Amino acid sequence: MRFIFRIVQKEIIVLLGGPGTGKSTLINELVARGFCCYPEISRQVTMKAQQQGIEQLFLEQPLLFSEMLLEGRIEQYKNALEEPDNVVFIDRGIPDVVAYMDYIGDEYPENFVKACEDYKYSKTFILPPWEEIYQSDSERYENFDQAVKIQEHLVETYKKYGYELIEVPKDTVENRILYILDKI
Q: Which has more confidence, 9 or 170?
């Protein structure tokens, strides 16, 4: 009897894009379809700071905020490796932290760069700025023009770390999901 073994590679897939591009909506739909997904953690960090009286931690203490995000995103990555599912989707990745720090023009320690180099995603899907669906809320302080600038920093940062960005077309949630699933 001859056995054939198939090596299954863990797919850790990041959805990225500037604020308000529909990432969380797609993550929620992927969860509804039974996929393993990790949510964006910046809202949790922001809300925790607000409970402590800091209205916008990213604006008031960007390095502290970014360190907390980096730590959380590294933890998400490590947890994704341990998931029984072969495909794990993550709303925003580790390089997002560097892109946002570059966007605001702040310096950051070398461990931010090292994390981008050490933890690599299998695929990166980028959602383009889309003014028609963009909404501000209590955790999203950027206007649409700022969201476009952030998008430019995201593209630059991910490309700097060697990622091929797969752009998800502006379309219905259903068609965007089908597009992503077709590419994996």
A: 170
